[in-house]
Design goal:
The complex is a heterodimer of chains A (304) and B (297). Chain A has helices at residues 2-29, 34-39, 45-55, 61-73, 87-122, 127-141, 144-158, 170-200, 203-210, 215-252, 257-266, 270-298. Chain A has 304 residues and is mainly alpha-helical. In chain A, helix 11 (257-266) packs antiparallel against helix 12. Chain A starts with a helix and ends in a 6-residue tail after the last helix. By secondary structure, chain B is an all-alpha fold. In chain B, 75% of the residues lie in helices and 0% in strands. Chain B is built from twelve helices and no strands. Chain B has helices spanning 4-32, 34-51, 53-56, 88-124, 126-140, 146-155, 159-186, 189-196, 201-212, 214-237, 249-257, 265-292. Classes of the chains: A mainly alpha (304), B mainly alpha (297). Chain A binds chain B through residues 14-16, 18-19, 22-23, 26-27, 29-31, 134, 137-138, 140-146, 149-150, 152-153, 157, 238-240, 242-244, 246-247, 250, 261-262, 265, 273, 277, 280-281, 283-285, and chain B through 35, 134-135, 137-139, 141-146, 149-151, 153-156, 226, 230, 233-234, 237-238, 240, 250, 253, 257, 260-261, 264, 267-268, 271, 274-276, 278-279, 282-283, 286.
Chain lengths: 304, 297
């Protein structure tokens, strides 16, 4: 088991390195000189050259990449071009907010998606199934940011029940979490339904039924065997949640990684963008790593 | 007694008959699926509206008329007017043009590049496969939207750049899909036969492996069209998509956001249109997948 875990961890290292390199490449290919952005259009060539040296921009992209990597290992992601704050500090403030939002979204997505998906699969092709899959398809078709705006209009402006935007009490969390969660919930319903139906087609289910096991017992077997593919989908949901939170944070002025990202992009704050992309990709890869590792506990057959 | 060649030829004819029959049965199954048919109908209407926008739209989408600022929908203006008094119906129609242009172009690019990568990786295997697929893994390690935002942030907003960003985001899906199909098809008798006749790798990839990818890709395209439209809306909502005054559904919502208190219809209507378009594409794609699933035969 330890070998399996170590192997999985090692396998995700090249992916993370690839992401860092891709971001370094994108940043490098960006038109516009960050030194000019910092110093202003009227900067003297000497000042620009000095800043280039200071920021390491006069070196090749490979050297910059290795340098960035070396610093990243020591938790140094550079300083924001705009505010001169340490990027790690900015991430440390924003990350908990994003984790809270995505965590709440994931919770909503699970509490809605799991029972709906299972019910849909059990009573397949009935009126219930059709309405549940219909609702979930509708949920998938609405843009996350639009759902957020409509909720703002309804619950804040018209009814005055919830604060429009910002952060503070649990009431600030309700609408953003619903916006992020409802989209992933809709996706989850479809995944759960498909997975459970797939398992219900297997021979052992027929055997269980044939030997006269009561429906509840059969369901137990089905769900036990559907756990692994479901956990896999859960890992992929994290990507959706993180992406959805970029839009949701913008709509609700929720001070997380997504909002920072948009501000950094608008300010062409390349070092900050690089750090934020890195941390988001790490979250995603990390979530899927946890999913991979959890297989060992869920399925004793994966021992090797 | 029949010669061997004749038997083979007959088997070939039977094969074609079976596959034609399967396609026919798929089509019948699709027609019985009312939701999918409705989806196809709506998608058809939207595509026609996009193509013939100048003929269908009641007025110029950029024409401002301050007399009818924030006007609510009525008989003359079925969708009302926005904060600059522009006709929302016309803007929605022209917006469908942007949505379908970006969808078509980005999926077209993604399919071509994804097919090339997937077939090459699956057929050649070995280190080529490793390198190509690990690269795809890196692209997939970016959470939804982030890759597109990062790309557009770097190369700048606009129509062409949005297309590039969305296609890069879609490429890994097609590459993986085709690689999977090719890995299965590579073991099959017809590829072995082609190879034993001395067909060279590019010919085998082009003539024998490419066609096996078509059915799964066709289904994927309809579903990705829905994803691409949502992505385009998201990007233009953030201001990274098509730039004003060109109407796009996402930017219309962004503009309407500031008028929520006085004229909520400005943000509501484009969102409803996106929902209807994406829902129809999803219904169509789902129906197609079910109809083409060989297990339902």
């Amino acid at each position: 088991m330890r070998r399996y875990v170590v192997r999985r961890v090692l396998l995700s290292v090249p992916v993370v390195l690839g992401v860092v390199f891709a971001v370094a490449l994108i940043v490098r290919l960006t038109p516009g000189d960050p030194a000019i952005v910092l110093l202003g259009q009227g900067a003297t060539p000497d000042a620009v050259a000095a800043l280039h040296r200071e920021l390491g921009l006069n070196q090749s992209v490979i050297v910059q990449f290795l340098h960035y990597l070396g610093n990243a290992v020591e938790l140094d992601l550079g300083r924001s071009y705009r505010s001169n704050e340490r990027v790690t500090d900015i991430i440390a403030t924003a990350l908990p907010n994003t984790l809270l939002l995505t965590g709440a979204g994931l919770g909503i997505s699970l509490t809605i998606g799991l029972p709906m998906g299972i019910a849909s699969a059990i009573w397949r092709n009935t009126g219930l199934d059709h309405s549940l899959t219909g609702i979930s398809l509708l949920g998938l078709s609405m843009p996350v940011f639009w759902t957020g705006i409509i909720m703002q209009w309804l619950f804040s402006f018209e009814l005055g029940w919830l604060p429009t935007a910002g952060i503070g009490s649990w009431r600030h969390l309700v609408m953003p979490a619903l916006a992020v969660g409802s989209y992933t919930a809709a996706n989850f319903v479809r995944m759960v339904r498909a997975t459970v139906i797939e398992v219900m087609r297997e021979d052992f289910v027929r055997t269980a039924r044939a030997k006269g096991l009561r429906p509840g017992g059969v369901l137990h077997h089905v769900l036990r065997n559907a756990t692994i593919p479901l956990v896999t989908t859960l890992g992929l949901q994290v990507g959706l949640l993180l992406g959805g939170s970029i839009l949701t944070e913008t709509v609700f002025a929720w001070p997380g990684i997504g909002l920072q990202m948009i501000q950094a992009i608008n300010g062409r704050d390349l070092v900050l963008i690089q750090g934020l992309v890195l941390v988001t990709a790490l979250l995603f890869v990390g979530a899927n790593l946890i999913v991979d590792i959890s297989y060992v506990f869920l399925d004793p057959r994966i021992e090797r | 007694m029949m010669g061997r060649n004749q038997t083979d030829a007959l088997a070939g004819v039977a094969q074609v008959a079976v596959s034609r029959g399967r396609l026919y049965r798929s089509w019948r199954r699709f027609c019985r699926n009312r939701a999918a048919m409705a989806g196809l109908l709506v998608v058809g209407v939207l595509v026609l509206a996009a193509i013939f926008a100048p003929l269908v739209a009641p007025s110029d989408p950029s024409a401002q008329d301050l007399m009818r600022q924030d006007m609510l929908p009525d008989w003359d203006l079925p969708f009302g007017a926005d904060q600059l008094g522009r006709d929302i119906l016309s803007r929605v129609i022209y917006g469908s043009r942007v949505a379908f242009e970006i969808g078509t172009a980005s999926i077209g690019i993604a399919v071509v590049i994804g097919l090339a990568i997937g077939i090459t990786a699956g057929y050649l295997g070995g280190w080529v496969d490793e390198v190509l697929m690990r690269t795809m893994d890196v692209l997939l390690a970016f959470p939804y939207l982030l890759l597109a935002i990062a790309i557009v942030a770097m190369i700048g907003p606009g129509l062409v750049n949005t297309i590039i960003a969305i296609s890069v985001w879609l490429i890994p899906t097609y590459a993986r899909l085709c690689r999977g199909v090719v890995l299965t098809a590579r073991q099959s008798t017809f590829v072995e036969a082609a190879r034993s006749f001395g067909a060279r790798s590019p010919a085998i990839m082009w003539r024998h492996l490419l066609p096996s990818c078509f059915t799964p890709i066709f289904v994927q395209i309809t579903l990705d069209f829905a994803r691409a439209i949502l992505m385009e809306a998201g990007l233009s909502f953030l201001g990274y998509g098509v730039q004003p005054p060109t109407a796009s559904w996402g930017s219309m919502i962004a503009e309407g956001r500031n008028e929520l208190l006085v004229a909520p219809h400005i943000a509501t209507i484009p969102g409803l249109v996106i929902t209807v378009a994406v829902l129809s594409l999803n219904l169509f794609g789902d129906g197609l997948r079910e109809a083409l699933d060989p297990r339902s035969d």
